[in-house]
């Protein structure tokens, strides 16, 4: 398998969240940012507070941010609490979604259009790409974009996963 690329159809999956709700990509008619991660990944730990900034920056209508965990519910819950994630954390038990998307590493972000086409793939931590994702979300929901990682933020331009 190879990583799902921008322009390809996103693999459809149902995953259960820590909240007990089933999230089904095939049922969405809105923008979805799926962030694949492992709780032991240092770059994931570094990235999640910035993803939370993105989540808090925009109204909930028209888009969704889902963390897709490759770990247990207990570990994922501790991780979400520790790194301040209030967006839904989905459990990829058996790694069916991870095998379908086949990210080369974590974190990997997949921005998926309402028609289930992958718009953008962001491996690792990339300052510029996170700000571009913010602009795309803002355009999609019809509001002014928010800079998620300003120039004076000490985050590096890139942090490998």
Can you tell me about this structure?
This protein has helices at residues 42-57, 73-82, 96-101, 127-141; strands at residues 14-17, 22-24, 31-37, 63-69, 89-91, 108-112, 118-123, 125-126, 158-159. With 161 residues, it is an alpha+beta fold. It has a single domain (26-143), classed as Glutaredoxin, CATH 3.40.30. The strands form 2 sheets. It has a 7-stranded mixed sheet with strand order 2-1-5-4-3-6-7, covered by helices on one side. It has a two-stranded antiparallel ribbon with strand order 8-9. Strand 6 (108-112) and strand 7 form a beta hairpin. The protein starts with 13 loop residues before the first strand and ends with a strand. The model has no long low-confidence stretch (mean pLDDT 96).
What's the CATH topology name?
Glutaredoxin
Instruction: Please mark out the parts with pLDDT under 50 across 5 or more consecutive residues, or reply none.
Output: none
Q: Biggest β-sheet: count, sense, barrel?
A: 7 strands, mixed
Q: CATH homologous superfamily - what is it? A: Glutaredoxin
Number of helices, counting only DSSP H or I runs of 4 residues or more: 4
The averaged pLDDT comes out at 96
Please give the order of strands in the largest beta sheet.
2-1-5-4-3-6-7
| Number of strand elements | 9
């Amino acid at each position: 398998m190879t990583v799902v690329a921008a322009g390809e159809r996103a693999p459809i999956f149902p995953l259960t969240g820590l909240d007990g709700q089933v999230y089904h990509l095939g049922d969405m008619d809105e923008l979805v940012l799926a962030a694949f991660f492992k709780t032991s990944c240092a770059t994931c730990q570094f990235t999640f507070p910035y993803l939370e900034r993105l989540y808090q920056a925009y109204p909930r209508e028209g888009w969704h941010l889902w963390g897709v965990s490759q770990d247990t519910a207990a570990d994922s819950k501790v991780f979400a609490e520790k790194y301040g994630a209030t967006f839904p954390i989905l459990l990829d038990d058996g790694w069916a979604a991870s095998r379908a998307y086949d990210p080369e590493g974590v974190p990997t972000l997949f921005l998926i259009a309402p028609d289930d086409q992958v718009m953008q793939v962001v491996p690792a931590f990339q300052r510029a790409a996170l700000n571009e994702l913010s602009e795309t979300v803002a355009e999609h929901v019809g509001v002014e974009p928010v800079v998620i990682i300003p120039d004076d933020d000490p985050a590096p331009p890139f942090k490998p996963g």
